[in-house]
Design a protein that fits this description.
single chain; Aconitase, domain 3; 3 domains; 5-stranded parallel β-sheet; 18 strands; 30% helix
């Protein structure tokens, strides 16, 4: 068995499992947010139980539409607030951050533990070895009541990384290269393991970005492993990191990936840096590094969205917020921002947006005709300065690149 199968077997109380086998696993954490949580709560009430399986292991986060953009959104906040008070679970409210970052900071599970979340990007936690499984609201209701989840053991594909990244290349470019290879459904209902000596060069932030977008390839589980090759996997894909260049997903699919150099020069009206994919401290540092010396192009709106209140606090203490504002950027409260398409920076049919978020399907960030490109923070900040899609490393910095 590979390590994902070993972890699943342990959670199911079995000695071994096989691909396609139906198992019932104990879960270590259950999570939802202000869009999926209310539906899960409604289903939970239909079950008719009077308690959650463990209040310390159920978490709700208000992050998708905060501050509330509509009366309906605010009503959904109240559903979570009332449920948290009634059942004694943990609720993160008032702009504490995106669910996946908040969990990483406050509920860090150990490798092999099971996290289930009513959000497709729950797989982010695979960056630190957690078996993180996105589920629907009905399944989440059952998990809150029983502390278990029924799953079918997935086929596992290994991505074996070697070499080192070039300058200005980061986790976002890695995962875009994989989505280009697998497409949006190439790993549907499968799990993916990231192994190989190339892992040593990847920070936790990069790993979280890569696992975050595992679902964009269809993977139900995305998890980082070790430097050696795995056994018991269905397929191994070699990924030489040194061959990866700056990439962007062009409208209207995360799999419509091209080198940034091929689309450089496309004028943009808005740039977004942040959300659960690239709102961490190292992402912010890449933006600040450039904006210490350059200003945002007058025709561009640059939105900076820290992934959590903790990250924003570090930025404030370091003086980064002043640097960003003085350069012309707009810093929003921690959360999902415009990624979900509900508020805080949506586009019209006239807008061309370059974003570090995870999806660019028609209508994802506003009008169906708004053009959204996905790219790394390094690409995003230089694009914001130049007013057009720009290969990272184009702008010179005092003291060297």
């Amino acid at each position: 068995m590979n390590f994902i199968e070993k972890y699943l077997a342990k959670a199911a109380g079995l000695k071994s499992v096989a691909v396609g086998q139906d198992i019932r696993c104990k879960v270590d954490l259950v999570a939802a947010h202000d869009v999926t949580g209310p539906m899960a709560i409604q289903q939970f009430e239909h079950i008719g139980v009077d308690h959650v399986f463990d209040p310390k292991k159920v978490v709700m986060v208000i992050d998708h539409i905060f501050p509330a953009a509509t009366v309906q959104a605010r009503a959904m906040h109240w559903i979570l607030k009332d449920f948290a008070q009634q059942y004694g679970i943990t609720l993160y409210d008032k702009g504490q951050g995106v669910i996946h970052q908040v969990i990483a900071e406050n509920h860090r599970l150990q490798p092999g533990q099971i996290l289930v979340g009513a959000d497709s990007h729950t797989c982010t936690a695979g960056a630190y070895g957690v078996i993180a499984i996105p589920i629907g609201s009905t399944e989440l209701a059952a998990a809150m009541a029983t502390g278990t989840i029924d799953i079918e053991v997935p086929e596992v594909v290994e991505v074996y990384m070697t070499g080192e990244l070039q300058t200005h290349i980061c986790g976002k470019d890695i995962v875009l290269s994989l989505i280009q290879k697998f497409g949006v459904d190439g790993l549907t209902d499968k799990a993916v393991i990231f192994n190989g000596p190339g892992l040593t060069a990847l920070s936790l932030d990069d790993r979280m970005t890569i696992c975050n977008m595992g679902i964009e390839m269809g993977a139900m589980i995305a998890c980082f492993g070790q430097e050696t090759a795995a056994t018991g996997v269905a397929q191994t894909i070699a990924l030489p990191l040194e061959q990866i260049v700056a990439l962007t997903a062009c409208p209207y699919s995360p799999a419509n990936v091209r080198p940034v150099a091929e689309v450089s020069g496309v004028e943009v009206t808005q740039v977004v840096v942040g959300s659960c994919t690239n709102g961490r401290l190292s992402d912010m540092e890449k933006v600040v590094r450039i904006l210490k010396q350059y200003k945002v192009h007058p025709a561009v709106t640059l939105l900076v969205i820290p992934a959590s209140k903790t990250i924003l606090a570090v930025m404030e203490r370091a003086g980064w917020c002043k640097i960003l504002r003085d350069a012309g950027a707009v810093i929003t409260n921690p959360g999902c921002g415009p990624c979900f398409g509900a508020h805080q920076g949506l586009g019209t049919e006239r807008d061309v947006i370059l974003s570090t978020t995870n999806r660019n399907f028609p209508g994802r960030m506003g009008h169906r005709s708004a053009q959204v490109y996905l790219a790394s923070p390094a690409t995003a900040v230089e694009t914001a300065v130049c007013g057009k899609i720009t290969v990272p490393g184009t702008l010179s910095l005092e003291g060297g690149a």
